[in-house]
Design a protein that fits this description.
Keywords: Copper, Metal-binding. By secondary structure, this protein is α/β, with parallel strands linked by helices. It has one helix and eight strands. It has one domain: Immunoglobulin-like. Strand 7 (91-94) and strand 8 form a beta hairpin. The radius of gyration is 18 Å and the shape is globular. The termini are far apart. The structure holds copper (II) ion (CU). Copper (II) ion (CU) binds next to loops.
C-alpha cells in the first residue's frame, strides 16, 4: 500500500514538473551556422533548456550577442570554432562586429 502511495506521489511530481516546465525532454541541441555574414537559420524555434551551438563557418570572426541589453554574448568566435548556450528565453541577437547580422531565438 505504501509502495503504491509513493509511486503515486512520484508520478504527481513528475507530471507536475512537466506541466510547469514545458521543456524538451531530453533537451535538444540545435545548430546555427554562421556563413556568408549570416546566421543560418536566422530564426530558430526551441524550448527552454535546449542548447544552440553556433558554428563559425565564415572567413571572418563573429560574435553572437543578445541585442537589447547585451544580456549574453559569445565574445569572439574564431573561424572554424563554435560557441554554445542553453536557451532560457526568447531573444533577438546580432553580431557586434557586423550589426547587420541578426538572428532570433523563439522559445515555444
Ligand atoms: Cu560578424
Amino acid at each position: 500500500m505504501l509502495n503504491i502511495w509513493i509511486l503515486g506521489l512520484c508520478l504527481n511530481l513528475i507530471t507536475g514538473y512537466f506541466f510547469e516546465h514545458s521543456e524538451s525532454f531530453p533537451p535538444k541541441v540545435y545548430t546555427v551556422e554562421i556563413k556568408g555574414m549570416e546566421f543560418l537559420p536566422a530564426q530558430i524555434k526551441v524550448k527552454k533548456g535546449d542548447t544552440i551551438v553556433w558554428i563559425n563557418k565564415d572567413i571572418v570572426v563573429h560574435t553572437v550577442t543578445e541585442e537589447k541589453r547585451k544580456a549574453w554574448t559569445s565574445s569572439l568566435i574564431p573561424i572554424g570554432k563554435s560557441w554554445k548556450m542553453v536557451v532560457k528565453e526568447s531573444s533577438l541577437y546580432y553580431c557586434t562586429l557586423h550589426p547587420v547580422m541578426k538572428g532570433q531565438i523563439q522559445v515555444q
